[in-house]
Amino acid sequence: MTRALVTGGAGFIGSHLVDALLARGDEVAVVDHLSRGHTHNLAGAIERGIAIHKAEVTDVEAMLAAFQEVRPDVVYHLAAQIDVRRSVGDPSTDAHVNIGGTAAVLEAAREVGARRVVLASTAGVYGDPGVLPTPEHAPIAPLSPYGASKAAAETYMQLFTRLHGLSTLALRMANVYGPRQDPHGEAGVVAIFTGAARDGRTAIIYGDGAQTRDYVHVSDVVRAFAAAGRSPVTGVLNVSTGHETSVAGLASLLGLETELRPGRAGEILRSCLDPTAAAQALGWKAKMSLADGLETIR
Ligand SMILES: NC(=O)c1ccc[n+]([C@@H]2O[C@H](COP(=O)([O-])OP(=O)(O)OC[C@H]3O[C@@H](n4cnc5c(N)ncnc54)[C@H](O)[C@@H]3O)[C@@H](O)[C@H]2O)c1
Questions:
Q1: Residue 266's pLDDT is what?
Q2: Which residue's C-alpha comes closest to atom 32 of ligand 1?
């Protein structure tokens, strides 16, 4: 049996990943400081007896203690400062959590002899790329401290592979959406818009609404993580649909009235990632269409 440890496991993507790993028979433990994540996301998993370690990923000693208790074979590192706008206002905290936290997780994984670490990275590492759909070899040119800290976290992953022979893979996710996404934060335009549709509110669009995203459903994303945990592939892979949808197009798909406000610093104008490499390396492909995916959260 594989022992899996999911950092950020009480969050949106992490909690779905925990459910998927349990369903395939892995033994699962969670590390989360429960600031944004909620134990109610893990209600089913808690019934099945998973261990939750309430700890801060930047706390080196706490990480080591948790890892020594769990002794994971595979670590899925999802805990992060995820708010792009907050990263612009407070880049130091963003770097502390996303770079410092990743270094602490990698060091604890190495110390207890974990086989593999899989990182939740982001399309944000590419900034506003020249080529769409963007392949993995495109230049790293983030437009926010969040994108920069994730790019640095990826570099630490690759460093631990070279320095210590630890098997690592970073999954650069496009915009993930689905049930349990927090509509109250800055992130998650789909969660915000579906909430507005439910309540009959107008959708606020920052910028002209022509900015595009590649919306990938959380059920597809967790299949990619689960495959990544078992695969020997190292480096980076995009996890995306390869389809571009404008924010205004998303609002109209949900039948929303819209109101335009000035654009935000650090926001990427167009984003769409090429998923070909993940298909070749992991045998993974996104299956859920946006129309069907939106039905899962309406
Ligand atoms: N949602 C997306 O569209 C998207 C896209 C690309 C990458 N990602 C990445 O995927 C991961 C999960 O994102 P999510 O959308 O599920 O976010 P989320 O906020 O729902 O989950 C993050 C979890 O990490 C925990 N956490 C945060 N800081 C922590 C810390 N310092 N110590 C311990 N736990 C901490 C939170 O309590 C939360 O449970 C993140 O690394 C994020 O950067 C998300």
A1: 62
A2: 56
> Closest ligand 1 atom to the C-alpha of 38?
39
Catalytic residue among 146, 156, 177, 215: 146
Return the ligand 1 atom nearest residue 32 CA: 34
146 among known catalytic residues:
yes
For every residue of the chain, which 3-state class applies, written as one string?
A: CCEEEEECCCCHHHHHHHHHHHHCCCEEEEEECCCCCCHHHHHHHHHCCCEEEECCCCCHHHHHHHHHHHCCCEEEECCCCCCHHHHHHCHHHHHHHHHHHHHHHHHHHHHCCCCEEEEEEEHHHHCCCCCCCECCCCCCCCCCHHHHHHHHHHHHHHHHHHHHCCEEEEEEECEEECCCCCCCCCCCHHHHHHHHHHHCCCEEEECCCCCEECEEEHHHHHHHHHHHHHCCCCEEEEECCCCCEEHHHHHHHCCCCEEEECCCCCCCCECCECCHHHHHHHCCCCCCCHHHHHHCCC
* N residues, the chain: 298
Residue 38 is predicted with a pLDDT of 86
CA distance 9 to 37: 8
Residue ID of nearest Cα to ligand 1 atom 10 = 120
pLDDT means over runs of 10, the chain (298 residues): 97 97 98 90 93 97 98 98 92 98 98 98 94 98 95 98 98 96 74 92 94 96 98 98 97 95 82 97 98 92
Q: Which domains does the chain have, with CATH numbers?
A: 3-176+213-245+268-295 (3.40.50.720)
* Per-residue pLDDT at 268: 79
